[in-house]
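Structure first, sequence second, as always.
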């Protein structure tokens, strides 16, 4: 304890941030919260926060056959395991940021939500052990309570520790690690089940799920250690505490522009054709292409495998080039093509799934940042929360429909259904491209054009709408009624400036 505080006591008048910057360049002491080595430790813990959550999310997909056989359920009941995960997030995503910012704090919130994921996985495993599907559904519900809110806490940590040019890279690394968790699950849980069956044949599924809970314990330990490091850094003044007094504005939803609603519909139409498909994909590849369970798990996880390296690369590319709507359109068309190929041909599914994985990564990097282009900063939390809530509502409903379609009509109709969902996303993307062009909202501008317009607005905004000047009041009146500011008034404003 004395060693930790003694440097501060010896140089009490010198801010720790300045010392940290010199340490970052010269010695990089891991004990200094502002040093590169310390921040890398923090980044590693941040990335592993969601590892257990994402690992457990796709356990039903990895053990599709085993769960159906051991629990004696049909596809519709099986897909309820995904629906019950999504139902709580229809509401909680909207309030998760508020709970972290105003009630719990990021440290307590992160540990609490990690605990929810762990408890949910234990209940899920207990349900398999006592052979009660309703208890397994309850476990998935509890995992859902913690999983999505934990992602919000993870993003909050990223903003607190890494700002400016580092932030996009950090988000990309977090997404990559999350998908690595899903990938490891897809390829590990099958062999784990077989290994457990060799010494515990009477409760193979339950024991396997209890072993999977160890990943949640690992993530909970990361949350606790990260909370301690964050508390120490805040106490030493090594990072600035960011608190918001902005209340949740539920009424802001009615003022969302048409472009934002189209983005919401694209998000729902696209993602409901990805995650539920992966949840049912393993058996699809076994039945249609004659793959072994190991081969099916490998091809089913390729979407997540590719997203890990592709997400940071595509994020960097979209940041540098712009043209977000064009990239979204390209990703949607490519994903629709992959579903059509899977439905009507016997081409090796590795091609279609690789195409889907690259498209999925590209869409995520191009779609989500567009919200910030058309929504005021004070409404970003509301907009993103509403977007996630609608997405989870769509996933909950479509997961149930997918199970019913598969039970009643088979995989061909299911693939046609997923293709129709992507078709809705395609129509909304074309409408977004048209509306953006008509309203000149700038969603499909190049990065250079956006930077130029931002500089021009920065030069003129202060004088055109200054509330302390007569000209500013007049100009704001013209702007509010949607009329163009008369040129002579704008000229007078510029002269007065």
């Amino acid at each position: 304890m004395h060693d930790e505080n003694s440097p501060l006591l010896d140089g009490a008048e010198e801010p720790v941030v300045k010392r940290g910057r010199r340490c970052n360049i010269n010695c990089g002491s891991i004990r200094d919260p502002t040093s590169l080595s310390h921040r890398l430790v923090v980044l590693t813990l941040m990335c592993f926060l969601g590892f257990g959550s994402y690992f457990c999310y796709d356990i039903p997909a990895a053990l599709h056959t085993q769960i159906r056989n051991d629990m004696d359920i049909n596809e519709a009941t099986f897909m309820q395991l995904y629906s019950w995960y999504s139902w709580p997030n229809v509401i909680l995503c909207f309030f998760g940021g508020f709970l972290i910012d105003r009630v719990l704090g990021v440290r307590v919130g992160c540990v609490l939500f990690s605990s929810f994921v762990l408890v949910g996985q234990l209940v899920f495993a207990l349900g398999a052990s006592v052979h009660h599907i309703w208890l397994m559904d309850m476990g998935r519900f509890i995992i859902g309570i913690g999983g999505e809110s934990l992602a919000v806490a993870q993003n909050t940590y990223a903003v607190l520790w890494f700002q400016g040019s580092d932030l996009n890279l950090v988000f990309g690394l977090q997404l990559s690690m999350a998908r690595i968790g899903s990938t490891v699950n897809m390829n590990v849980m099958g062999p784990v089940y077989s290994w457990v069956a060799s010494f515990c044949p009477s409760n193979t599924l339950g024991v396997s799920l209890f072993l999977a809970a160890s990943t949640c314990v690992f993530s909970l330990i990361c949350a606790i250690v990260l909370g301690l490091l964050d508390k120490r850094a805040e106490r030493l003044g090594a990072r600035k505490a960011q608190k918001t007094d902005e209340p949740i504005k539920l009424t802001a939803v009615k003022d969302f522009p048409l472009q934002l609603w189209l983005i919401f519909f694209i998000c729902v139409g696209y993602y409901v054709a990805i995650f539920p498909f992966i949840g049912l994909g393993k058996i699809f590849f076994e039945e249609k292409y004659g793959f072994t369970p190991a081969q099916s798990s490998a091809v089913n996880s390729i979407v997540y495998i590719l997203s890990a390296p592709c997400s940071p690369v595509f994020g960097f590319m979209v940041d540098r080039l712009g043209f977000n709507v064009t990239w979204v359109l390209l990703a949607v068309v490519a994903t629709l093509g992959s579903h059509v190929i899977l439905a009507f041909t016997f081409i090796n599914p590795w091609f279609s799934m690789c195409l889907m994985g690259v498209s999925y990564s590209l869409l995520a990097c191009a779609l989500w940042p567009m919200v910030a282009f058309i929504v005021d900063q004070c409404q970003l939390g509301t907009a993103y929360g509403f977007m996630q809530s609608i997405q989870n509502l769509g996933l909950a409903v479509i997961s149930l429909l997918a199970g019913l379609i598969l039970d009643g009509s088979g995989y061909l109709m299911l693939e046609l259904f997923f293709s129709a969902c992507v078709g809705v996303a395609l129509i909304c993307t074309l409408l977004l491209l048209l509306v953006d062009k008509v309203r000149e909202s700038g969603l499909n501008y190049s990065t250079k054009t956006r930077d130029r317009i931002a500089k021009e607005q920065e030069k003129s905004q202060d004088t055109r709408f200054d509330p302390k000047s007569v000209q500013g009041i007049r100009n704001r009146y013209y702007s509010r009624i949607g009329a163009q500011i008369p040129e002579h008034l704008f000229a007078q404003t510029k002269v007065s400036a």
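Margin note: The two ends are 57 Å apart (CA to CA).
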